[in-house]
Amino acid sequence: MKSLALLTFAASLAWAQDGKLRIIAFGAHPDDCDIRVGGTAAKWARLGHLVQFVAVTNGDAGHPVQSGGQLAKRRTAEAKEAAKRLGIADYHVMDNHDGELMPTLENRKEIIRLIRRWNADLVLAPRPNDYHPDHRYTGVLVQDAAYMVMVPAVAPDVPPIKRNPVFLYYEDRFQRPNPFRPDIAVDIDDAWEKKLDAYDAHASQFYEFQTSVGADVQVPKDPAERRKWLAKRRTPSISDSIRNALAKWYGPKAVKHYEAFEICEYGAQPDEATIKRLFPMLPANPHGNR
């Protein structure tokens, strides 16, 4: 417990340098970060903190008609536009083929470099169990980087960061080997329109790709109706575990839209005070205790 307290203290000193948190979020494809953390990212950005999204593949297979370099270029442009709409600092797209990501040493080193260059306080990524191999391997790559970001001899072309960031997983629905545990839940009702703006920027995914999923999917052509359709399609259902997590952080407040995160066993292990430092949008005193 003593070493944990020291680690938390050291991290808090690093954040105090300029008062700005530095958050880096990894997704397998250009739009994955928007889905899992877009609303919280908009809230961080609104408070003046620095957020970078990273797509570990270029998305060049994610369309029913287009593919290859043409699609990769389009999806990068969509990602950059989504970043503008969310107000975040950057959306970086790595040059790996969609559907072909592997947890190679070179990809691990590049993840390490990106975390170091961003001097991250907080790193977010998928859990390494998922239906899609790109999602799984993105989770593996970030896990494998979690300790190595502090080792000077690994990827020595970029200096190591001086303290290990906190690493968090995004919410998912998979039950094996372990179900997702919502350690942190964020009310994004006041950022929901921003998140929809980001989705709307990824037209190749949220409108065009949907037609390849099933014949029953009919995307409205009118922009206003299309946005309503998108909002309805993407509004989450709230499970009991999520409801309990929201109650922990917000008290009895009614929440319709949320994002949830699980603390990874790798990296710095945050206590409740550290979590509130990393998530300054959480209420200081949700239950009204004196």
Top keywords for this entry?
single chain; 290 residues; alpha/beta; Rossmann fold; 7 strands; 43% helix; 13% strand; globular
Overall radius of gyration: 19 Å
Low-confidence parts lasting 5 or more residues at pLDDT below 50? 1-16
Strands, count: 7
Instruction: Look at the helices and sheets and give the structural class.
Output: alpha/beta
Distance separating the two termini: 27 Å
Largest sheet: 7 strands, mixed
CATH architecture: 3-Layer(aba) Sandwich
Query: Averaging pLDDT over every residue, what do you get?
Result: 92
Summarize this, please?
By secondary structure, the protein is of the alpha/beta class.
Can you offer a commentary on this structure?
With 290 residues, the protein is α/β, with parallel strands linked by helices. The chain has a single domain, classed as Rossmann fold (3-Layer(aba) Sandwich), CATH 3.40.50. The chain is 43% helix and 13% strand. The protein has helices spanning 2-15, 32-46, 68-86, 105-118, 133-148, 192-201, 203-208, 223-234, 240-250, 272-278; strands spanning 22-27, 50-55, 90-93, 122-125, 166-170, 184-187, 258-267. A 7-stranded mixed beta sheet has the order 3-2-1-4-5-7-6, with helices on both faces. Helix 3 links the parallel strand 2 and strand 3 (90-93). Helix 2 packs across helix 6 (192-201) and helix 3 (68-86) runs antiparallel to helix 6 (192-201). The radius of gyration is 19 Å and the shape is globular. It starts with a helix and ends in a 12-residue tail after the last helix. Residues 1-16 have low confidence and may be disordered.
